[in-house]
Amino acid sequence: MRYIFLVTLLVGVFSCEPKQESSEKSVDWSKEKSTDLAKDIVFEEQIDIQLYLKRRPDWKMIPTGTGLQYWIYEDHKGETAKEGDIVEVAFEVRLLDDSLCYKTEASEVATFKVDKSDVETGVQEGVKYLSKGDKAKLIIPSHLGHGLVGDLNRIPPLQALVVDVEVVDIK
After folding, report:
1. In this structure, is residue 4 part of a structural domain?
2. CATH number of the domain encompassing residue 64
3. Could you report the per-residue pLDDT of 92-131, keeping only the tens digit for each?
4. How many Å apart are CA 130 and CA 9, to the nearest integer?
């Protein structure tokens, strides 16, 4: 009897395999979920931008269809920059919390070809509203700035930018 009990116990122990956990996790992700996430990010960012602008009621921002907002606070009414023009700008880039990311020094300018360079899309769009000598504020949403990854240096991911720009020259 003892022998039968021992054999039954051993057969029971060795015949039961532990449940194996799958190392692969199923991800239930779809294009719709990606779209919804992107909409949520844009919505939250727009709230942050509106709160930022509410603290600056004297800024007379003009929205564009892309999400860029600009305000020309010193207007020289000349010919505006266009695609292919080379522009020289002095600028200051800040986050919505007012932390400084980048700034040209007093005697420096940054030079780039409009719509033909790696400068942020929002800056390239913004300078096309400006003429030589103009000074403007640009609010650049993250999708027109550095997007999901930031600039891997001073601008974190998913951050709207506040750019104070002066067009020094257009060639």
Report:
1. no
2. 3.10.50.40
3. 999 999 999 999 999 999 999 999 999 999 999 999 999 9
4. 86
Query: First CA to last CA across the chain, in angstroms?
Result: 102
19 pLDDT tier (thresholds 50, 70, 90): low
What residue numbers bound the domain in which 147 lies? 34-170
Phi, psi for residue 4 in degrees, rounded to 5 = -65, -40
- Three-class secondary structure of residue 89 per DSSP: strand
**Distance (Å, rounded) from C-alpha 79 to C-alpha 37?**
40
**Rg of the chain's alpha carbons, rounded to an integer?**
28
146: which 2 tokens?
């550095």
- H/E segment holding residue 1: none
User: Is 69 among the domain residues?
Assistant: yes
| pLDDT at 21 > cutoff 80 | no
Amino acid identity, residue 28?
D
Report pTM.
0.81
> 158 by DSSP, 3-state: which?
coil
Counted domains in the chain: 1
- Ranges 23-27, 31-35, 124-128, 137-141: which has the least confidence: 23-27
Q: φ and ψ at 59, to 5 degrees?
A: -80, 120
Does the residue 55 lie in any domain? yes
Where on the phi/psi map is residue 159: left (φ > 0), alpha (ψ -120 to 50), or beta? beta
Residue 1 domain flag:
no
